[in-house]
Specification:
Number of strands: 7
Number of helices: 10
Radius of gyration: 24 Å
Structural class: alpha/beta
CATH architecture of the largest domain: Alpha-Beta Complex
Largest sheet: 7 strands, mixed
Number of domains: 2
CATH class of the largest domain: Alpha Beta
CATH topology of the largest domain: Spore Coat Polysaccharide Biosynthesis Protein SpsA, Chain A
Amino acid sequence: MKLVVTIPAYNEEKTIASIIKRIFTVAKKLKHKSEVIVVNDGSTDRTAEVAKKAGATVYSHPKNYGLGTTFKTELEKALERKADVIVHIDADGQYLPEEIPLLLKKLEEGADLALGSRFKGKIEGMPLIKRFGNRIFSLIVSYITKMPVSDAQTGFRAFTKKLAEEANITSSFTYTQDQIITISKKKFKIVEVPVTFLKREGKSRLMKSPLDYGIRGGANLVRLFRDYAPITFFGSIGMVFITAGLAIGSWLLYRFLTLGAIGKTPSLILTVLLIVIGLQFILFGFYADSRKR
């Protein structure tokens, strides 16, 4: 069996060599044929050079494309290198390479995807906004997949070659939810493993600021609902329009019953228009869901 460990990296020259060396130490104990692939996502420091020196195979993007695009490159290159099992781990040192065997054990027991859950394990450091955001995303993914997921955002996961071939990542911002949702629809077995999450040294490369994280995370949340739960997404929008239409209609009915007059015609037209638009959104949600299936 060939184990390929993939690492996305953006300006991680200070930590990546240690991560790579520790991975090789773990792989040696496992006695698997192994390789470490680093996808350098447009780093402006010596990340690529340091990673190569540490023994990794390095592929570099000409500029920073984001985690989603980087993950797609990781899968492509891992499959090209004939991986039987792929482990994805971040380059910042917050996850422990020494816990890779915990994930691999679950694959040996029949799982297709083993997620390293920080919330089931030990968290030494995570900003409040990220903790809140991770919880929200996990709830949304659990709702869409109809299965409990405690940490849908984890950057520490192991999966089989077959699963990697079936992955369909549509976001450039992140890959985490897309992989879980896509494969859950294809009946792959997903399990979670408690892992340790250390406090990051230095600033996060992903979260430029709480506002930036909130905006990008919010946009991704909307995309998740639109792409994977169209009935809920478009149905909710439709209900807003219908509710507004019914509110105005109720006010017009009240005026008619108490004053004997509806009032201005545009108000009546607006009522009908809002309800019709709302119904169209709901119908489109059902149409989009049927197309998705």
